[in-house]
Amino acid sequence: MSLHRESRTRSLDGMANRRETDLAFTGNSNVLVYLIHGITGTPVEMSYLGRKLSQANGWNAYATTLPGHCTRLRDLVRTTQQDWRRHVQQQLSFFRDHYETVFVVGLSAGALLALDASTKVQVNGVGVLSPTFQYDGWNTPWSHTILSSAMRLIPSTLQCFVFHIDGPPYGIKDERLQASVRKAYSFSVIIRDWIHDCWSPRRTSLGMVP
Q1: Could you tell me where the DSSP H helices lie in 99-160?
Q2: For 25-58, what is each residue's pLDDT tens digit?
Q3: By the 8 A CB rule, do 161 and 186 touch?
């Protein structure tokens, strides 16, 4: 089985909210597995599972791109859980109308979206991978206890500055890759990108860039 970009899959014509970053794995059956990545993730997270399901069973698999993902930080912070829930339900309804058997599988927060969608759209099974019901563990920062209350006081445009990066023994194991991720999430880089994202549209509207 080969991996195809969603834009090359004719059976997906008419589906809402398709993105170039979506991944479709074509099989030879009337079974479809709908794959949902985690928050701040990408469809690539689900590519291994989708490929294996297609190769081993001949099933079709589709890895979606949640709203606000695979673009810029400003797009992500403008989306809400309602946007993600609506997106998943619309696409899952499309597949329900086009396939005899439909499964939905999600990773982390994507698992919660899968469970939520299964209460709205009839599916044949649900797969939940590392579902996030509650943040806990010995490495959870003490600030988490007040985070849910504090977030109500923080403007949505500034909430992107509130994050937690897993450290050893959790998270990314490769030290060089871990260092690269930490650098990308450093306060100076976040501030720089935030200023750039806020300033670029203004420059364009003023005719300062072609």
Answers
A1: 109-118, 144-151
A2: 988 889 999 999 999 899 999 999 999 999 999 9
A3: no
User: Strand 60-63's sheet: what is its strand order?
Assistant: 3-5, 23-25, 60-63, 31-36, 101-107, 125-129
SS3 35: strand
Domains, the chain, in order of start with CATH, read 1-133 (3.40.50.1820), 137-203 (no CATH)
Indicate the pairing of strand 3-5 with strand 23-25.
antiparallel
Q: What is the pLDDT of residue 66?
A: 97
Backbone angles phi, psi at 92, to 5 degrees: -65, -35
CA distances for 82 relative to 19, 78, 87, 118, 127, angstroms: 19, 11, 8, 15, 21
- The CA-atom distances, in angstroms, between 205 and each of 112, 194, 199, 209 are 39, 18, 10, 9
**Taking the mean position of all CA atoms in its chain, how far away is CA 121?**
20
Two tokens, residue 192: 């720089």
